[in-house]
Records
---
Amino acid sequence: MRYKLRNSIAILLALALTALVGACSKKNVPVQPGITGGPGPGTFQSGPGAGVGGMDDARWRELGINSEAEKREFLAKAQEFENQDIYFDYDAYTLTAPATKVLEEKIAFLRQYPKVKVTVEGHCDERGTSEYNLALGERRANTAMQFIKNSGLAGAQLTVISYGKERPIATGHDEASWAKNRRAHFVLNY
């Protein structure tokens, strides 16, 4: 009887441990389009009425885009917009000359498409505490946003978010990787 009880307890413990490990395992979550790291810029829809880029015609008209050629041009420019980050020096949030040049190109895009919304993400390298890097990332995003607003786009629909060191683009532990992670990234929402 004791032998059966011991075996039953061992089996129950093994089942509980298996269930616990299964519950804690990492789940694969599909990436949503328009989210950083997703397959393309903007927020897409599918189904009836969805044209180039997956948006319906009414949404394209809201953006001031009417023809298929204009849609393709917008999507190409949107992809370029999202793929160009600005970079910062170590422990800094002031704009460099190359960063200013990239921001001028983004301003030209926003002037052409004034109804587009932009989220400016601030990022840092892995050095420093999480709290410090969240604050530094926010200052970087705010610096980029303020530059855009000061260009005459005060009404631009811009929001900022800081990810600090939580979303590195380069995972190395050297200066080349750290330099890639000290950035502001721009995500379009339309």
---
Amino acid sequence: MNAATAVVKPADIWRDADAAKDFLDQAAAELAAAKEQLDAMLRVRPGSHVLDVGCGTGNDVRALAARVGPSGRVVGLDSSEQLIARGEPGGPDAAPVEFVLGEAGDLPFEDGTFDVVRSERVVQHVPDPAAAVAEMLRVVRPGGQVLVTDPDHGMWAPDLDDRELTRRIMTWWSDHVPNPWVARRLRDLFVRAGARDVAVTLQPVVLTSLAAADALTWIGKAAGAAEAQGVVPAGRAREWGQEILRRDAEGRFLMFGAFVVVTGNK
């Protein structure tokens, strides 16, 4: 593999802890308003026991610890030892915080351990989404809540002139995510896992800068990768990438999409 093709997969960032942390921090900043809506959907109260699946460096874990208070418990689980090693405890009036190394499809907890389980932008990356959802439902107590949200990578829509080329590159680029359409499958996965009162909420995401779009999709690297792998002719790929840069420089960049939020009870 040469240097040009080495940047093809957005998932490659998880191999470098510093790059992954920067990516997660920037994405969180772009989604701040959406995260407020997510927080409002969680049935978290003082004393709750909460699990965050795919916690990264633990920003959401610490926020949850403050919400549940010292009588509660918050656990963050991630498959990256480098990321959870950077996790920090909550504040003085927060719940005890614990960071655990593990996989979403094989959670290392007993049945019914938590009141609430959440997962944000994680199931799109796991090897077995059905197993991950089933495991989250298993470790929540009867009557407890599971919330999962992921972007639907088939719905990212950049405003660019060449519609046919945009469709071709965006479809190819989204397939580098292990489960690019998992968001639209989440309701089915919840129902099959036995969840009750399954509800679906759509969160629109509007991005008006390339930096914001890269935080979620790395679209800025798509043209070079498509050219390097021969997905489209080199000249056309270059023009497509240059249009993205030009629109961004002129303040005309626009891309929008959607996150799917699914909640269910045990």
---
Amino acid sequence: MKLEPRIIKPRYKPSTFPFIVIGLLVLGLVTSFAFIYFSDLLPRSNDPATITALSVTTLPAIVNLPQPTNTLIVKTPVVIGTSQNLISQSLPSLTIGEPAPNFTLNNLGGKSVSLSDYAGQAVLINFWASWCQPCRIEMPELVKAYENYRKKGFVILGVNLTDQDQMPDITTFVKEFHVSYPILLDTDGTVSDKLYYYPGIPMTVFVNREGNIDQVQIGAMSKQQIDDGVNALLKK
């Protein structure tokens, strides 16, 4: 009897290549989302050297505000970017040379205070919060400026973002820095968000004796910047 040779077929083994590709894609997506999420939570440097000021000479019309983001906290307690990567922001209510939007808020003592109460004076409106590290950088210089210039008809209105802050933290902050100028509580964000369209904090608006916006500052200010801004107001 003649035996036929037996042909043994190799057992099929599915390729692992598609699974490797899918795994790498999933890993890439997870890594990308994790990087974006955690990079937003990590604070960057608060170097005051990255400050950018906007004035009548630089912005004659609508204020298109750049974000010098080493010293800017954007609407949540997060510091982003660098001042070399400027993002244009349009604030509809803020026009250099036009009247600053009037507002009324309660101070820490519960008394109503309006911007119009200071008509004829040079006013610096500073938007801040107790958790804002750049705000802490400039606060001592703001306090000194108020004490140095108040007798010349200068006032600072510190508008606290109370809808994003806590009263115990606010009062502790004020005591720590011996803030002597009026602190106003924006409890629902009406002034900061709806009237002044702040892109982030600290934000400072210089208002001259005629009630018009003279300069807008985004980011923590140095002593020199504060003095220059105040002196410009007092000369007009």
---
Amino acid sequence: MAKTKILVKGYAKEIDGEEHASSTATLIQENGLNIIVDPGMDRKALLEGMSKEGLATGDINFVVLTHTHLDHCLLAGIFENAKVLDNSDIFSFDGRIGEHDGRIPGTDIEIVGTPGHDQFHCSVLANTEDLGKVVIAGDIFWWSDDEEQKTDRESLINHEDPYVKDEEALKESRNKILDIADYIIPGHGEMFKVKK
């Protein structure tokens, strides 16, 4: 069984006329492996979150990117011993590119295609003992800091995404994740329990 821990709560806000954003950065631990989903772009917050868990950048085995918007992936290169996964491939720092089979190698953690916000978007499904099925959903679900985070199904399905690439695909992905998950960790905002 996996353990999940939010290292950085994602945010999207304006301060003094400037946009500030960084995705939720989530640690998953399973079978002795340390995995970070969406390291974001707030280096100080990420390193502080890792330090609280007793981890250094060299301790991370895999980094999973739900998509390649820079507020989610800018820091992927700081993990010197990690391999980086996206929706279909595994990238190594020696230039090698391989494919994965929809799982993080050496684990039961699934990588699920969830297009819409971005055509190559994916989410990560971890089975945990304490929370059940936790989905790290990237920007399938996200809120700016000044928005109310409504978590009833209708609000979640229809929540406006100003960066959406394919609205119909996004709604399908949202429905798929809501059917699977017990808890969802959004790209920006608070983790929430799925109302069944």
